[in-house]
Design brief:
Blueprint (H helix, E strand, L loop, with lengths): L1 H13 L15 E3 L6 E6 L3 E5 L3 E4 L5 E4 L10 E7 L4 E6 L4 E5 L2 E5 L1 H4 L8 E7 L2 E6 L3 E5 L4 E6 L10 E6 L3 E6 L2 E6 L10 E3 L10 E5 L2 E5 L3 E4 L7 E2 L4 E7 L5 E7 L2 E7 L5 E10 L2 E7 L2 E6 L3 E5 L3 E4 L13 E2 L4 E4 L7 E5 L2 E5 L1 E2 L2 E2 L6 E3 L6 E4 L4 E5 L4 E5 L8 E6 L5 E5 L3 E6 L2 E5 L13 E3 L4 E5 L6 E5 L8 E5 L13 E6 L5 E5 L2 E5 L34 E4 L5 E5 L2 E5 L6 E5 L11 E6 L5 E6 L3 E5 L13 E3 L11 E4 L6 E5 L5 E6 L4 E4 L12 E8 L5 E9 L4
Antiparallel strand pairs: 1-57, 2-3, 3-4, 4-5, 6-7, 7-8, 8-9, 10-11, 11-12, 12-13, 14-15, 15-16, 16-17, 18-19, 19-20, 20-21, 22-23, 23-24, 24-25, 26-27, 27-28, 28-29, 30-31, 31-32, 32-33, 34-35, 36-37, 37-38, 38-39, 40-41, 41-42, 42-43, 44-45, 45-46, 46-47, 48-49, 49-50, 51-52, 52-53, 53-54, ...
Length: 732
């Protein structure tokens, strides 16, 4: 044991500070970057469990929060209902698409019988209750009985006794009865031997035609209610009758107290019903927005608020931060080595920022409210943030927390896009007007020719050649303005589908990007065109249409008949393409398909991609879909200028690790050699941008033995130097 400890200390000593484990996780790892502002469900199991619109979370007794999603093994997003099985110590969650997951320890069991079944057109899941070894699942066709020991569907119960589909909203269980709120009213059935017999349901006629859709219970106390009336069984006289606010949730505590949450527009309140039928306010409308679920755990009140998040009330009230953007990202984001800047756009003011510390939301600064922001960029000189709005620009310094608003043009039109050129000038696209340039602190408008349609300008890029490539309005192809930053002649040009005039695959251009070689990749609703153009005042500028080698995916031109929503370039000059059918990774020339991610084979929440952003330093690829954002740790990063020490992760490599070993901080296109201590070559590879990958095996595919391995890097000029060590362990 002492010898093993000495060996372990020696190994750690060999790993220098530049080779620490990355905070971003392993290559190929996914992370949800969800908006968790709207909390829908809350319950108590071995931990506190809850669900936001698209994500599951847990909170332990030390208030540590764990976020769970498809990246951690769940099979879907969008949780419709959940329940805790105390006997088997497992969590049952049902999704909006009627799939079911059961989480037991580190295992997740998927039950997709309802998804695959064609017996009923509407299989929506509304509620789950636990009856000993059964999970009773209220659906839009009846009550499905799930065996919690065997993890399989056992039966289906129909409260109307005729085995015809009946919408079942919620259920309640007492010592000897099961109650079900249905589209026909309130039914009850006797529970015998933990089971409900065939044709044993009775309708409680006194509660018909009241629009009841919810029921709550604790022990033998049962309440049923709609949004105005609350009845406590068996009484037919309401104990609550409100004419103003809407009742969201009734909760019966273990001591029999009745709590009810209400909402009135955008304000909510939590009440306690007293014995004399009066109410006491527990949490008032200055705090709550739309409370829809309540958990009482000893002296703690946990409130799921669909408008504001998760509130914990005991002696004080505090909102529990679940991370993520506070709104959905609908604007144009920008990313560099330090920040991902993401405007909300739509109806939401402000923006979110992501860095190594996580997400931070900005809706105001020094009591000044941010406007609705459309597009974003970051000044490469001072790292200040710029955002466009409908009426001008926002310039924000995050270090000093100072905000400046400006309107560089006195003309009408939304400011829709912006970008800094390689020489530091700020270019802004104004819908209906054209291009604005900030140079030497002065603004100048460059208007397109009078025959160019200007209404609907919203996307552009500024190339290394000082050209502004603009998606033309109303399916008119591309507009290009060539400034005098690089070429001497200023000129406007329109590119169309005609040969010698653009050769676009479609006049409906949807996206564009410049790659590391200066090629312009243009996405349309009918595939991709690639431009390599020089001086537009002298040269014809036509697109080449690539044809991919992998004919299993495409027959003919690349992405033919596909809508290319976005294109991004990683550190190895490879192209990430977002469509309505997932995200695609192509080789640098576009002729080889490397990856294709969809919601069915990855944690993508949707197959519709709006934007792809790539962290050049870490290689993390952020996918903004039409629902949420997720990220993926890619294999390529940007190369460094001068080769020095590199980061190796994981390092040491433990005996249980079978993933890739990454070497980051390399010069672009470097040759990486891995040798043992005697100098024998074990493996050789070439970097993807500034990162190389090794699977821990020899050329012959054999896993290397324990030991210390040396890393050497050769740049394209032929200079080679030793830059690090990687330690492989097989257990102590």
């Amino acid at each position: 044991m002492l010898r093993a400890l000495i060996i372990f200390i020696f190994i750690l000593h060999q790993v220098n500070h530049s080779q620490a484990q990355s905070n971003f996780g392993a290559i190929g790892q996914w992370r949800e970057q969800y908006n968790n502002k709207s909390v829908q469900h809350i319950l108590k199991g071995d931990k506190i469990y809850g669900a936001t619109t698209h994500q599951l979370f847990s909170i332990d007794n030390k208030k540590n929060i764990e976020l769970l999603g498809k990246s951690t093994g769940l099979h879907e997003i969008g949780i419709a209902a959940m329940a805790w099985d105390a006997l088997e110590q497992q969590l049952v969650i049902a999704y909006n698409n009627s799939n079911i997951d059961i989480i037991k320890g580190d295992d997740i069991y998927s039950i997709n019988d309802m998804v695959l079944s064609n017996l009923y057109a509407n299989k929506k899941i509304n509620d789950i209750k636990i009856l000993n070894q059964w999970a009773l699942i209220a659906t839009n066709f009846g009550i499905v009985v799930l065996d919690l020991k065997k993890h399989e569907i056992k039966d289906t119960w129909f409260p109307n006794n005729n085995r015809q589909a009946i919408v079942t909203y919620q259920m309640a269980i007492t010592k000897d009865s099961l109650y079900a709120i249905t589209e026909e009213g309130l039914y009850s059935a006797a529970i015998k031997n933990n089971w409900v017999g065939i044709n044993s349901w009775n309708i409680l006629k006194a509660y018909q035609n009241l629009g009841l859709k919810k029921i709550s219970s604790n022990a033998n106390l049962v309440t049923v209610y709609n949004n105005k009336l609350v009845f406590q069984l068996p009484s037919t006289n309401p104990i609550i009758n409100t004419s103003t606010s809407s009742i969201q949730q009734v909760t019966i505590t273990k001591d029999g107290a009745i709590l009810l949450s209400t909402t009135d527009g955008s304000k909510g309140t939590l009440f306690k019903l007293n014995a004399d039928k009066s109410t006491t306010i527990l949490i008032d409308s200055t705090i709550l927005g739309n409370p829809i679920d309540i958990l009482v755990d000893e002296n703690n009140y946990w409130i799921a608020d669909s408008a504001n998040g998760l509130l914990l009330k005991n002696t004080t009230s505090q909102w529990i931060t679940l991370t993520g953007p506070s709104e959905y990202i609908k604007g144009k984001s920008f990313i560099n080595n330090n920040f991902l800047l993401a405007p909300f756009n739509g109806q939401s003011n402000g923006f979110s920022v992501f860095n190594k510390s996580g997400w931070k939301n900005y809706t105001s600064s020094n009591a000044s409210k941010f406007p609705i922001c459309i597009a974003s960029t970051i000044d490469p000189k001072d790292q200040t943030w710029w955002l466009t709005t409908t009426s001008g620009l926002v310039h924000f310094n995050s270090t000093t927390a100072t905000m400046e608003n400006s309107a560089p043009s006195n003309l009408n039109g939304n400011y829709t896009d912006l970008q800094f050129s390689t020489i530091g000038n700020l270019w802004v696209l104004q819908d209906g007007q054209g291009l604005l340039q900030k140079k030497d602190n002065a603004w100048k408008l460059f208007a397109p020719p009078s025959n160019f349609i200007k209404s609907g300008l919203n996307k552009m890029i500024i190339t290394k050649q000082g050209q502004a490539w603009i998606i033309a309005a109303q399916n008119q192809g591309l507009y290009i303005y060539q400034s005098s930053e690089v070429y001497p002649t200023e000129v406007w040009k329109q590119l169309t589908t005609s040969k010698l005039k653009g050769n676009l695959p479609s006049s409906n251009v949807t996206s564009l990007v410049e790659d590391h070689d200066g090629s312009i990749w243009v996405g349309t609703d009918n595939g991709i065109g690639i431009f390599n153009c020089g001086d537009l005042s002298k040269e014809i500028c036509d697109a080449s249409i690539p044809r991919i080698n992998n004919t299993n995916q495409f027959v003919g031109q690349l992405f033919q008949k596909e809508i290319v929503n976005c294109i991004s370039v990683d550190g190895a000059n490879r192209k990430w393409v977002g469509t309505n059918n997932g995200a695609w990774l192509l080789s640098s020339d576009g002729l080889e398909l490397i990856e294709h991610f969809t919601k069915d084979n990855s944690p993508l929440p949707s197959d519709t991609l709006l934007q792809i952003m790539i962290d050049p330093n870490e290689g993390e690829v952020f996918f903004n879909t039409n629902t949420e954002i997720v990220s993926y740790r890619g294999t390529a990063t940007a190369g460094v200028v001068t080769q020095n020490d590199i980061a190796i992760y994981p390092n040491p490599v433990g005996p249980e690790y079978n993933g890739p070993i990454a070497f980051k901080g390399l010069v672009e296109n470097a040759i990486v050699k891995i040798t043992d201590l005697s100098g024998r070559l074990v493996f050789e590879t070439r970097s993807l941008g500034g990162q190389a990958i090794w699977n821990g095996k020899t050329y012959e595919g054999k896993k290397v033995s324990s030991g210390i391995y040396l890393v050497f890097v050769r740049d394209e000029a032929g200079n080679e130097k030793g830059v690090g060590k990687v330690v492989i362990t097989s257990g102590l």
